[in-house]
């Protein structure tokens, strides 16, 4: 994620002032969503019915639905935390959800069963976006020209695409999807500094995200991300609820009673943000919860977040004293004990002058105002990074990375590949995402084919594969045969049946598997190389063995091939390498004769003077 300052030449002054464009920034949160607007570098969060936070909940009943915290219809079913389902297959959703899911045949995302029919996560998000945008339009006095919507830095292509779909469904023009930590950095105006190294600590209702950003010569970039997709303020509430049950020697209640207990626990937690202790009542029990007790309950979870912070620092090869700023984001950073723990961990006072609930929406609004084209002087454009490496499958089931993770977007990278077999006219391309070396350990994003490659000997074709990620993180992969120009491409749409893990887990796994992955990769490469030799030699033998070799020579070659083929089926890399080398030597004479024969054939029938 980088903030690149670009001053437009000769802007402003001479041009007639056009209508100010209407734009808003939307923080589409797992727990709460907000809408904000900005003018000339000043942003404000818009209030909806007296509240700035709109709970990200849609209540469905038989004849319709309502959005937010409004008292639901008696028989309504409430759909919350839908952000977790965006761009995900059912098997990826490890979280306990309070509603029923049904597999969908049309999109990979599961559908939610509600009294008013089945709805997709994209539809639910669209309803939330719709309410916020409509409110923005009302305040700004007309239809919106554009919106900026924030997404977590780790959101992959499928999740971003689902978010864009939701915006489209709500009839919105998305100026850009912006990473939440980038938005927070913008809100604090950190892009105005010359250089810095910044941590964004974002603890929300159900998720924790930490991002390490670097700012240099006006370029502001996220260099590492981490966190926990199932850790947040809701866990604090559950810990308090358990404490209450323990104190009152009460049974764990079910259904509505459990919800009531959680609501009281949350209320007590919020009270302790303002005061040292509070009285809690639940059923016949009454007691006092103080800050010390709260901290003892939530300390293990805070420590977990700090562990993620250590990992991110290590990933970025940075120590806490090299940091210039630590920014607190998310409602749960207000919980007593959190800020203090973060301060002690990083050894500096974190930035928290802006409301942690609002920071992301404010940054989004500031960007929206600039991106929609309202000009005040210097332009600021933002760039993001891709969270996981992108690449393609090569022979031997290996992942070849084309764009490494944390590369700033938009970006285009190309690499050339070639055919494996003589006369191969089709190439299968398998687009992957992940940090591991072997295909099954990576996430499959798309498959497509390049057809009509002119028949050539193996290794002669030149196929250029280009990966292009646009400013919103959407990926286009294109394969082109360089001689004829035949090409084929794919824009990555949500692809499901994915690894049952979040990005953090993928990164951790990749780190712990580095050594074995490298070993397997080296072995696979040797196996592929051996198979390629055997394949080529087989084709050559079929064509020319009878005319160019005697029986003894044929047998010797065949034997060398058989021994190598056998070794290539095993795991002894050194042996495979040695035998490949041997086969090369044994076949050298044959290769030389074929070349001579080939030249004679080419010369036949041509006058000498044609051949210069
Ligand atoms: P998300 O980003 O997941 O949508 P938010 O950033 O809105 O979530 O954070 C919601 C969480 O913040 C909830 O768990 C809520 O209890 C907690 N929270 C909000 N205000 C306070 C407060 N004053 N004291 C303690 N926790 C708070
Ligand atoms: Mg948030």
| Anisotropy-based shape | elongated
> Architecture of the largest domain, CATH level 2?
2-Layer Sandwich
Instruction: Assign the CATH topology of the largest domain.
Output: Nucleotidyltransferase, domain 5
Q: What's the CATH C level of the largest domain?
A: Alpha Beta
Radius of gyration: 30 Å
Helix percent reads 25-40%
Q: Tell me the total number of β-strands.
A: 29
For the largest beta-sheet, the strand count, sense and barrel status come to: 6 strands, mixed
How many domains in all?
A: 3
Kindly report the oligomeric state of this protein: single chain
The CATH superfamily of the largest domain is ATPase, nucleotide binding domain
Q: Nutshell version of this structure?
A:
This protein has 612 residues and is α+β, with helices and mostly antiparallel strands.
Topology:
Blueprint: E1 2-6, E2 23-28, E3 32-39, E4 42-45, E5 54-55, E6 57-61, E7 64-67, E8 77-80, E9 101-102, E10 111-114, E11 117-119, H1 121-140, E12 146-151, H2 157-169, E13 174-179, H3 180-187, E14 196-203, E15 208-216, E16 219-228, H4 233-247, H5 255-274, E17 277-282, E18 285-290, H6 291-315, E19 325-329, H7 338-346, H8 359-371, E20 379-385, E21 390-394, E22 398-403, E23 408-409, E24 411-417, E25 427-433, E26 443-450, E27 463-469, E28 475-481, E29 487-491, H9 503-512, H10 514-548, H11 551-568, H12 573-603
Parallel strand pairs: 2-12, 12-13, 14-19
Antiparallel strand pairs: 1-20, 2-3, 3-4, 3-5, 6-7, 6-8, 9-10, 10-11, 14-15, 15-16, 17-18, 20-23, 21-22, 21-25, 24-27, 25-26, 27-28, 28-29
Magnesium ion binds next to loops.
């Amino acid at each position: 994620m980088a903030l690149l300052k670009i001053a437009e030449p000769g802007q402003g002054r001479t041009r007639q002032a056009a209508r100010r464009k209407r734009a808003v920034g939307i923080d589409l949160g797992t727990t709460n969503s907000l809408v904000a607007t900005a003018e000339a570098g000043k942003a404000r969060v818009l209030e909806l019915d007296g509240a700035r936070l709109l709970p990200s909940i849609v209540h469905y009943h038989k004849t319709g639905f309502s959005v937010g915290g409004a008292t639901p219809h008696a028989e309504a079913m409430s759909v919350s935390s839908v952000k977790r389902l965006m761009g995900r297959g059912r098997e990826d959703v490890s979280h306990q959800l309070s509603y029923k899911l049904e597999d969908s045949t049309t999109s990979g995302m599961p559908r939610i069963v509600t009294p008013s029919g089945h709805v997709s996560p994209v539809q639910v998000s669209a309803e939330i976006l719709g309410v916020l945008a409509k409110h923005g339009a009302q305040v700004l006095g007309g239809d919106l020209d554009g919106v900026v919507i924030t997404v977590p830095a780790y959101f992959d292509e499928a999740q971003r695409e689902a978010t864009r779909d939701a915006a489209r469904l709500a009839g919105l023009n998305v100026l850009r999807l912006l990473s939440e930590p980038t938005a927070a950095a913008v809100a604090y105006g950190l892009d105005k500094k010359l250089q810095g190294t910044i941590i964004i600590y974002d603890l929300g209702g159900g998720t924790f995200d930490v991002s390490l950003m670097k700012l240099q010569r006006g370029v502001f970039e996220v260099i590492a991300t981490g966190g926990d997709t199932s850790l947040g303020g809701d866990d604090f509430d559950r810990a308090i609820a358990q404490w209450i049950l323990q104190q009152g020697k009460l049974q764990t209640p079910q259904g509505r009673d459990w919800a009531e207990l959680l609501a009281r626990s949350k209320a007590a937690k919020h009270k302790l943000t303002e005061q040292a202790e509070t009285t809690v009542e639940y059923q016949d029990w009454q007691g006092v919860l103080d800050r010390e007790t709260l901290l003892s309950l939530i300390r293990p979870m805070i420590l977990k977040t700090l562990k993620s912070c250590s990992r991110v620092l290590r990933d970025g090869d940075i120590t806490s004293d090299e940091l210039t700023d630590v920014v607190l984001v998310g409602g749960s950073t207000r919980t007593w004990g959190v800020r203090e723990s973060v301060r002690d961990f990083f050894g500096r006072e974190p930035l928290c002058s802006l409301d942690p609930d609002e920071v992301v929406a404010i940054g989004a609004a500031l960007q929206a105002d600039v991106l929609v084209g309202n000009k005040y002087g210097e332009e600021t454009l933002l760039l993001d990074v891709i969270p996981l490496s992108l690449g393609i499958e090569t022979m031997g089931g290996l992942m070849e990375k084309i764009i490494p993770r944390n590369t700033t977007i938009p970006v285009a990278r190309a690499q050339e590949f070639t055919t494996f077999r003589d006369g191969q006219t089709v190439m299968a391309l398998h687009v992957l995402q992940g940090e591991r070396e072997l295909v099954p350990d990576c996430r499959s994003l798309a498959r497509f084919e390049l057809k009509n490659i002119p028949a050539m000997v193996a290794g002669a074709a030149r196929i250029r594969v280009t990966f292009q990620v646009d400013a919103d993180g959407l990926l286009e992969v294109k394969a082109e045969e360089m001689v004829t120009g035949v090409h084929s491409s794919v824009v990555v749409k949500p692809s499901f049946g994915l690894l049952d893990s979040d990005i953090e887990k993928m990164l951790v796994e990749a780190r712990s598997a580095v050594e074995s992955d490298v070993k397997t990769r080296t072995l696979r490469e040797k196996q592929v190389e051996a198979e390629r030799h055997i394949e080529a030699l087989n084709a050559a033998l079929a064509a020319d063995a009878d005319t160019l070799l005697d029986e003894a020579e044929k047998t010797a070659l065949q034997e060398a091939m058989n021994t190598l083929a056998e070794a290539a089926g095993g795991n002894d890399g050194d042996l495979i390498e040695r035998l490949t080398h041997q086969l090369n030597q044994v076949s050298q004479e044959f290769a030389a004769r074929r070349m001579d024969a080939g030249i004679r054939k080419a010369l036949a029938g041509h006058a000498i003077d044609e051949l210069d």
